[in-house]
Amino acid sequence: MKASAALRKEAETGDCWSDFQPGDWLSSINVRDFIVRNATPYTGDEAFLTGPSQRTKAVWAKLQPYFAEERKKGVLAVDAQTASTLLAHKAGYIDRDNEVIVGLQTDRPFKRAIFPFGGLRMVEAGLKAAGFEPDPVVHEVFTKYRKSHNDGVFDAYTPEIMKCRKSGIITGLPDAYGRGRIIGDYRRVALYGIDRLLAAKRAEREQIDDMWPSDDIIRLREELSDQMRALEDLSSMAKLYGFDISKPARNAQEAFQWTYFAYLGAIKEANGAAMSIGRISSFLDIYIERDLKQGVLDEGKAQELWDQLVQKLRIVRFLRTPDYDALFSGDPYWATECVGGMDLDGRTLVTKSSYRMLHTLTNLGPAPEPNITVLWSNHMPATFKRYCVKVSRDTSSLQYENDDLMRPFWGDDYGIACCVSAMRLGKQMQFFGARVNLAKALLYAINGGRDEVSGEQIAPQTRPVAGDLLDYDDVIAKFDTTMEWLARTYVHAMNCIHYMHDKYFYERLEMALHDSDILRTMAFGIAGLSVVADSLSAIKYGKIRVTRDPTGLVVDYQNEGNKAPPQFGNNDDRVDQIASDIVTSFMAKIRKHPTYRNATHTQSVLTITSNVVYGKATGNTPDGRRKGEPFGPGANPMHGRDSHGWLASCLSVAKLPYKDAQDGISYTVSVAPQKAHLSESQLIEEAVKAFDVYFDRGGFHMNLNVIDRDTLEDAMKNPDKYPQLTIRVSGYAVNFVRLTPEQQRDVISRTFHGQI
Predict the structure, then answer these.
(1) Annotation marks residue 419 as catalytic
(2) Which residue range is the domain that position 241 belongs to?
């Protein structure tokens, strides 16, 4: 459609696009072009912000008893009889008189749905763990008549993959739960309306109807048909709430509501581990600015829209199993929203709504969701940098990622899936793949492929180390061989998983909000990086003597060297280079193996809270870590070993190569608030400078906690005093009191820096 024809079409749909600058977005589905042409950069400070409205306070008050009861009981309610779909539940409300944004996952707040298309076993395990009985009809349907994603994956798994899952060298694979990490471009519904999106999908389908029916073409035709049905169902879902989203949004409130409906539809159809909302703040700000200029909205009502949208995001709940909760603790679902950053022409994408989104943490108090991510650029307005640091100081709820590093790869309209995974919105998706335990792989290399805990032969049998002292060159060679095997097995498992997920649990609505021709990545991951780096450093620069059990299995290590070996996290190139080399080496091995749908291989250094689970499954390691002790989270140094201050620790992590870890590198730092000779403004400036240095040196990500150990210890003893105490862990934020005691102790044992 030519631009002039699109403009004529606008006249038929009212004033939806009046006062917007025209561009390519009129003739094609192009939200990025709309934002670049219409966003209003903001370089001022936070003085314009307002408190919560009376309506927002009323809705929030209605939710407080649910939060309190959930802290005591856990899961409050589940619809165990109904497989969740866009239209499975009638409309649900919190407070119809005061809600300005409406829509719930089910028919009432905190009532969870089931997703048996992902796996019946997970549904039934989750129900039983929460004290609910599985439904016999659902059980019959999904054992006799309908195969699930989980069933398909385990039909395709090999005995070798099963052994790896059991031993803990590969853990957290999305073979029984929704893979997530797909970001629908939910903004499209607000900008274009369902009718226009359906027309675009029909045009995409027509382009392939004349193509020869290869496997790929047949699958794509079916997927496009599913996508169109999903868009139609989304429109029907909105009608349950009394809204017609077939046409574009006409004002800010409709833009918020349409965008939220699109996201709500996604979380009704998929229970992915991470369900990011994308990058909506600068987009929605365009509608707010127009309404402010037209006098139909004031600042209080603009903030009200953000506060009430965030209220909805804070009450999303999925039914999970205890095993899942051990890996991803605290009910996270990663509704990640990105604020800030720069466009390709050098303009800031900071808008007033970037501030408004962060201000929800003040109006509603700290919380893990949405997972607010600041895209930090050294060129961003200094006022916004200072405001972000203030919010982190007060709430410990933000994460920061390097926009200057990502923008050359992904452009200026990318979002973050989950925690640290960048992708172009509507142009790219990911096949998520959890992570492997590289510390255990190192122990397998030392023991000839035997598991150091069970003694079972897991990896192919190789020659174990000989003698009582470890030789660095010998261990490195053996480790390289083990990583080759592990990479091959890992890719094999991932191909099985995502083939079956597309077949049995396809995310039709999320993919309807993508172009049909997209980039797919397959996201691998590693855990235990700092354990391996410190272990290899100890072998190289120390004198490591092994202890064997009666079967010859190496089970312990003693360093008999005269000097302490260098440890990761102190800006020491001797060990930092070892860590970087491991990242590059494993990525190279992963890239050797073909992927499902020719996805591009990527890799993360990220653990979530699984650093505790991995540590529990891993024996003594040459760095001195004891059996069962947690790993450092993500790319973090091991607890207490980064002894040269916050900046030195940051700079070690910054050396890890993003080109070989494009699924992201997670780093969490805790700073204890201290009385100092500096003023508050000087402390803020010092923190901003530290951020600038870290990101300028190539640092990718930072979770910043500003909290002291005494507060966390008191929260363990008196959880009712700290209902909203929020901390950042590897890749996300969590209510501290919702972590397990073991995970809480892990957080408390980490390094708390008192200085930069």
Answers:
(1) yes
(2) 187-251
